[in-house]
Write a structure and sequence with these properties.
By secondary structure, the chain is an alpha+beta fold. Helix content is 31%, strand content 23%.
């Protein structure tokens, strides 16, 4: 090296002056120019002289001074510069950090209180705002606070050694110049005032990084919350109802029958045991009486009136005291007795030889029981009733029970009897009605009700009239047994008819039913409820009062987890206290630093020592391994800092004298510390790769099968003192902690590289102050550090600092990675195909005439043989009472079913808390044929020409009309139908057939009200009883006006045919000509495996007409059929579409069901006693289909006069009827009306088609058996769903970190070679500049700012010769013409 770099120290003299910058190689001293005055005193501190300067002593003098027992005191001239503090420790920034922590504390506290009071913060509508606010925002704020805590800790660590030296007593080398601060996990002890800021800052960082950040990810979760709101509810005023007079309509019986046979709810206010007086929130509107009160999930609660009826039945045993009952012959009358334990006895005196042979059921009041029994027996039958305290009896008997020819009794009794006491009650109770998932469930406080109930007084309801109506014989009007039985037998009178229907009209089943009393109670309660329901319907909203109540609603809301919030509130409060402590303890007035500028740069370190020769010489002597070299020799030395200059006071030990020669670079290499440990980078590289692979794999699983295992979905409950504080999903905590670890780990490399980057730049090549000695990245973070590094072309630091920024984003993304939500576990299975759409017609052996015309009764009776599964009842229940779709059906479509025996039973996960998922069933998805029926309709033109459908009568004409009996004020009347007998064309009736309408007027006193008539009459040619072509059209009609019944003709007419239904004014009529269409398409459907309920479906192709539904319209097959015999047995086939339309159009008139009446025959009146499949009540005469249409428009009769509305409602009704027809009595063995077993074909011996038929069926589609289909079985599970945006963010950031880690590992070896010395402490940095005379001189002469801006000033890190001629490692100004600095180590 050039020895001219070494300058001579001169012995201090009073008149010594500087010699300028002249370099003299023959001297070993250097003049320190422009330095403050220095006074060396042995006893006391000398006063500073601002205008004088003293030359520094040479090495021997310094050694003598250091080894003398005297103390050293330095007095500096006052500086005009303000004391320096890091930005974060200055008043305003630190106050802002404190305010931020207090705002976070306040925010957590406020949202916690709001969430607790309001049962959540906001409804979770799935919007991006909610997702960002609940998932990203808390962690983002926590990460921001953690970053501030990091900066605060770094700044406190930076100033800690300076603060210790600036204290009055100074600090040892170990506590100051060689102190490195340690890692964040080594929390210092708060010993003394000087260490308190560091302790607080470290604790702030630890709590922020490993406490607040992970917990913030679980602060806000989405849950289904139930909360209550007190409000006033509307209630039906009981005072406007009393006394309730029963006035049951046809709908009253229909609802009762539907509930008993179809087990459907007719009103939410009717439970199995009680009737609730309705109440409801909001605007009064109409009184909510339907089975589903609201589509919104909510609960109404109020104190209301409750009605109930108790039926206490006691069993009656037969007393076998007669020969007839024991099976022996007897010629005289037999007396038989049945008796109850209460003493009620019924004595039968049966006249021999054979009465009551068919069996039967009787249910009546005690007073009317004898009359009811005689109606089912002979006039000579004698019944006596004794000592019955009960008010009603039920008796059922088997066939030949009372016959003298009966066989010996078997183990089962031939008779079943009950003596029952019926009591009506009224009381009050707190009642709630819960709505949701398409149902409304009423719950009453039974204890409260039973404590307040009392017998229902007559002032509230006429219970005697209710009993009389219940036991009336009209039940057979609304439920005729004939359509349901192939072979008609004696009817059961009164309500016993409904009980018999429930038992398939089998007397044996009724007698054998041990729980018959429960059926009696159920029917009794339901009818009473429906009577009250009818009374409720007659009231309007004007008959309401306000009652106090509450509305409980449930919604998916964002809630605060109380356990997490409490912890965060405590931690944030501690953080605020700690920050306030840091603020107080770092004020310059109480804890001066003795600094006037940032000591982070190389030149600023030079400034700290340049003006004190002892300090310079001390660091010059210990240039390598400073921490180990200086801690022991300077153990008794106190370092001090004042006015921006470091000095020390004390005595060095003799371990390493200052005049010892430094090691030569060629003979002894300095210890090379590992600045960037390669093994640590490799471990991080592997860890990042594993995390990347794990997230990628979990994301793949999340998008395919889902993450449902217990390890993913288990929740940890948080509770204190038994109070539940919410549940936490460990997955979010774990991933956030992993992200925190990655961030902290990466922060180690980022901090190290930012610290050493100026030295790397100096070691690589001579660098200007802007890129070397006057620059520091210690106070630059994340993107700001990356930006500054990019400007100075430090690419590796750009890479690492950008990675540090991305780790902060990674924490936010990892905390938002998971979302626990319901889902499905899917499995693919292959199952056999059992059923297919029917392409083979149904076959029955019936009687046919010699023209091949067959009896259709066996077919049509089969349509209604089981009322409990009747498709007519089921369809009407769905349309009018909000009943469910049949299984494997939805929105008019029916789907070919499969056998659902694939439901798994074992538990596959433990979520750590009870959920509703366990009660949810398995869903099955498959592709299968779908079928539906619809109509295409057009308006009739004849409705505009009244003579074609309406006849006007002159009622004053005595020849035709009974003017004496008819109303005198009625001069003209209008009758439906035409009077021309010569009409020969296509015609349609007003009824199911050509019978004349007789019902129904809506007359009150002397006023004739509005009424409506509706129906689905067929369209056929005159003189034809069966449609010749299929599919055959039919008519949908709706007539509205003012009819009046019983207008008499003048002549005598048999069978009441002289009575006519006339209209006092021209009625309005809308009629549609409709063609039925049955079509099919391939579909994908998802069904509930337990119930067969369709949850979703998709039609995969354009629907096409299914011709097989019509191609066999009552075709007879000749099998020994003789043309000479009037009737013979033959096989008749019918396609399901023909059967469906025939049953639909004919059901309204069950008395003539089976054939379509010939219009040429004399018309007769409709049978108003038949109301099995129609409604006849004041103001309404409709079949089931038009009643359903009326219910679809909320019983607004005027709406159905609109042709478009009529068509829309008719189409919906027709499709629903077909749905239930398709699913009626489906069997996987025999199929059904629309489905058949795979490969079914007509019997081989069916015979030849009757030659007289004009139409032959097309060939059947033959499907081979053994086909299999693939189904997707989805079981409901709790899933840990992975957010797609968060997952991709994590993967991209991890990929960046992996690449950056690899780059850093590659360059780390070069970096470690370039910097063989440490740079952690003040001593490390001071040792690098202590022997650099030109740099020290420059630091005294120029400010850091000017050095930074002067590009001509360049420096380099390497080996050079100092003033003593020793070769040393350090930073020195670079002059390519006069300086030789080597970087070779």
């Amino acid at each position: 090296m050039d020895r001219q770099l070494c300058q001579e120290y001169q012995t201090p003299t009073s008149d010594a002056r500087p010699e300028g910058d002249l370099i003299n190689t023959s001297h070993t001293s250097t003049n320190l120019q422009d330095s403050p005055s220095v006074s060396l005193n042995t006893q006391e501190e000398a006063s500073g002289l601002s205008n004088s300067e003293v030359d520094h002593p040479n090495n021997e003098q310094v050694e003598g001074l250091l080894t003398s027992p005297t103390s050293l005191s330095i007095s500096l001239s006052p500086s005009k510069k303000l004391p320096w503090l890091p930005y974060t420790l200055r008043r305003i920034p630190l106050c802002l950090i404190l305010a931020f922590s207090l705002l976070l504390e306040l925010a957590v506290l406020v949202v916690h209180i709001i969430s607790t009071r309001n049962s959540g913060l906001v409804d979770d509508d799935g919007s991006k705002t909610i997702v960002i606010g609940s998932k990203f925002a808390p962690t983002l704020l926590a990460v921001a606070f953690g970053l501030l805590a990091t900066i605060l800790l770094d700044d406190v660590k930076r100033i800690e050694p300076f603060a210790r030296m600036a204290s009055p007593s100074g600090a040892t080398a170990k506590e100051s110049i060689t102190w490195t601060g340690g890692h964040w996990w080594t929390i210092p002890s708060p010993r003394g005032k000087e260490s308190l800021p560091l302790f607080c800052a470290t604790l702030i960082f630890v709590l922020g990084s490993v406490g607040i950040s992970p917990l913030s990810s679980t602060l806000l979760v989405t849950q289904v919350i139930i909360f209550e709101r007190k409000t006033s509810l509307h209630q039906l005023d009981l005072g406007s109802l009393v006394p309730i007079q029963p006035a049951p309509l046809a709908t009253t019986y229909f609802r009762t029958i539907s509930n008993i046979l179809q087990n459907v709810s007719t009103s939410a206010w009717i439970t199995n045991d009680y009737v609730v007086l309705p109440f409801w929130p909001g605007q009064p509107g109409s009184i909510p009486l339907s089975p589903v009160l609201s589509d919104e999930a909510q609960t109404w609660s109020a104190y209301t009136t409750i009605f109930s009826v108790d039926l206490n039945c006691k069993h009656m045993e037969p007393i076998w005291n007669s020969l007839a009952m024991s099976g022996l012959m007897k010629g005289a009358n037999d007396s038989n007795i049945i008796a109850s334990e209460s003493g009620c006895t019924v004595e039968f005196e049966v006249e021999a030889p054979s009465y009551y042979t068919s069996g039967g059921e009787v249910w009546s009041s005690v007073d009317n029981m004898i009359d009811r029994l005689k109606r089912t027996g002979a006039d000579t039958f004698n019944v006596k009733i004794h000592n019955c305290s009960e008010n009603e009896l039920f008796i059922a008997w088997k066939e030949k029970t009372f016959s003298s020819l009966s066989p010996a009794p078997t183990n089962s009794s031939p008779i079943s009897a009950k003596a029952c006491q019926n009591t009506y009650y009224v009381g009050h109770s707190t009642t709630s009605v819960t709505m949701g998932q398409g149902q409304s469930i009423v719950t009453i406080n039974e204890t409260e009700y039973h404590s307040t109930k009392e017998p229902l007084p007559s002032t509230i309801a006429n219970t005697a009239a209710i009993d009389n109506i219940f036991f009336d014989l009209n039940w057979t009007v609304y439920l005729d047994a004939a359509p349901f039985r192939t072979f008609y037998s004696d009817e059961s009178p009164g309500p016993a008819n409904l009980l018999a229907t429930l038992h398939h009209f089998s007397h044996e089943e009724v007698v054998a039913d041990a729980s018959i009393a429960k059926d009696l109670q159920r029917i009794r309660k339901q009818f009473f409820a429906e009577v009250l329901h009818s009374a409720f319907e007659l009231r309007t909203v004007a008959n309401t009062i306000s009652v106090p109540g509450s509305v409980i609603t449930s919604s998916r809301r964002v809630v605060v987890v109380s356990g997490v919030a409490i912890v965060l509130e405590i931690v944030l409060l501690i953080q605020a206290i700690l920050i306030a402590t840091v603020f107080y303890t770092t004020r310059p007035s109480t804890r001066p630093l003795g600094l006037t500028e940032d000591p982070s740069t190389v030149v600023s370190v030079a400034k700290l020592i340049s003006n004190n020769a002892r300090t310079v010489n001390a660091f010059t002597s210990y240039s390598n391994g400073t921490k180990g070299d200086l801690n022991q020799p300077l153990a008794t030395v106190q370092f001090m800092l004042a006015g921006g200059q470091i000095s020390f006071n004390g005595k060095l030990t003799a371990r390493n004298p200052l005049n010892k020669s430094l090691p030569n670079a060629s003979t002894e290499q300095p210890k090379k510390p590992t600045l960037l440990p390669i093994w640590l980078l490799i471990v991080l590289f592997v860890l990042l790769s594993l995390i990347f692979a794990t997230i990628a794999k979990l994301y793949q699983l999340s998008q395919t099968s889902g993450l449902y295992e217990t390890i993913f979905v288990y929740n940890i409950g948080v509770s204190i003192g038994g109070d539940n504080l919410g549940r936490v999903n460990p997955a979010s905590l774990l991933t956030t902690l992993i992200a925190v670890v990655i961030s902290l780990w990466w922060g180690i490399f980022d901090t190290t590289l930012r610290k050493i980057q100026p030295y790397l730049a100096l070691a690589k090549s001579p660098a200007s102050g802007y890129r070397g000695v006057a620059i520091s990245y210690k106070s630059s973070y994340l993107l700001w550090a990356a930006y500054r590094a990019a400007k100075r072309r430090h690419p590796v630091l750009v890479l690492v600092s950008t990675g540090a920024f991305l780790t902060q984003i990674l924490m936010v993304a990892m905390s938002s990675l998971w979302n626990r939500a319901p889902g499905d576990l899917t499995t693919l299975l292959r199952v056999p195909k059992i059923l297919e759409l029917r392409n083979v017609p149904m076959v029955e052996q019936v009687q046919v005439d010699n023209r091949g015309q067959g009896d259709r009764n066996p077919f049509v009776h089969g349509l209604f043989e089981n009322p409990s599964t009747s498709w007519m009842y089921g369809a009407l229940t769905q349309l009018t009472l909000h009943g469910p779709d049949p299984s494997w059906s939805a929105e008019g479509w029916s789907f070919v079913p499969i056998a659902l025996n694939v439901t798994p039973s074992q538990d596959i996960q433990d979520t750590g808390n009870s959920t509703e998922l366990s009660i949810l069933s398995v869903h099955v998805t498959l592709e299968t044929p779908a079928i539906r029926a619809r109509m295409e309709c057009s308006s009739y033109s004849f409705t505009d020409y009244e003579p074609w459908w309406l006849t006007k009568w002159d009622l004053t004409n005595k020849t035709n009309w009974n003017t004496t009996a008819n109303p005198k004020n009625l001069k003209f009347g209008f009758e439906l139908g035409i009077s021309e007998e010569s009409f020969n064309g296509i015609w349609t009736s007003f009824f199911a057939n050509s019978r004349r309408l007789q019902c129904c007027e809506n007359k009150t006193a002397d006023s004739v009200g509005l009424a409506s008539i509706g129906g689905y009459p067929p369209i056929i040619s005159r003189n034809t009883s069966i449609p010749e072509t299929w599919p055959t059209n039919f008519t949908v009609k709706w007539i509205h006006g003012r009819p009046i019944e019983g207008i008499l003709r003048a002549e005598e007419w048999s069978h009441g045919e002289g009575k006519r239904l006339l209209w006092v004014e021209k009625p309005q009529m809308t009629a549609l000509n409709c063609q039925p269409i049955i079509e099919t398409a391939h579909s994908r459907v998802t069904v509930d495996s337990h119930s067969g309920r369709v949850t979703s479906y998709k039609i995969l192709e354009v629907p096409r007409a299914y011709e097989k539904a019509w191609d066999s319209p009552w075709i007879a097959y000749q099998n020994n059929l003789s043309p000479y015999r009037l009737l013979d047995e033959a096989n008749v086939t019918v396609s399901h579409g023909v059967l469906f339309v025939t049953g639909l159009l004919g059901a309204a008139d069950t008395t003539s069901f089976g054939t379509i009446p010939d219009p040429n025959t004399s018309p007769i009146n409709e049978n108003t006693r038949d109301q099995t499949f129609n409604f006849r009540q004041p103001g309404l005469n409709v079949d089931y289909m038009t009643y359903a249409m009326l219910s679809l428009v909320d019983f607004d009769h005027q709406q159905l006069l609109d042709a478009a509305v009529l068509e829309r409602t008719a189409n919906q009704t027709f499709s629903t009827m077909y749905q239930h027809f398709v699913n009626n009595n489906v069997s996987f063995t025999t199929g059904g009306y629309v489905y058949q077993p795979v490969g079914e074909k007509l019997p081989d011996d069916i015979g030849q088609i009757y030659t007289g038929r004009k139409r032959e069926p097309g060939p059947a589609n033959m499907t081979s058996g053994g086909d299999v289909i693939t189904i997707r079985v989805s079981r409901p599970v709790e899933l840990l769903k992975m957010s797609t945006p968060a997952a991709w963010i994590c993967l991209v950031i991890l990929a960046y970190l992996i690449v950056s880690c690899g780059v850093l590992a590659i360059v780390s070896r070069e970096y470690n070679r370039m910097l063989p010395g440490p740079s952690d402490s003040i001593a490390d940095n001071a040792a690098l500049v202590a022997g650099s005379a030109r740099l020290l001189q420059l630091s005294r002469e120029e400010s850091t700012r000017s050095i930074k801006k002067n590009d001509d000033i360049r420096a380099k890190l390497g080996w050079f010769h100092d003033a003593e001629g020793q070769e040393r490692w350090g930073v020195e100004l670079y002059d390519e013409h006069a300086t030789s600095i080597s970087t070779n180590s």
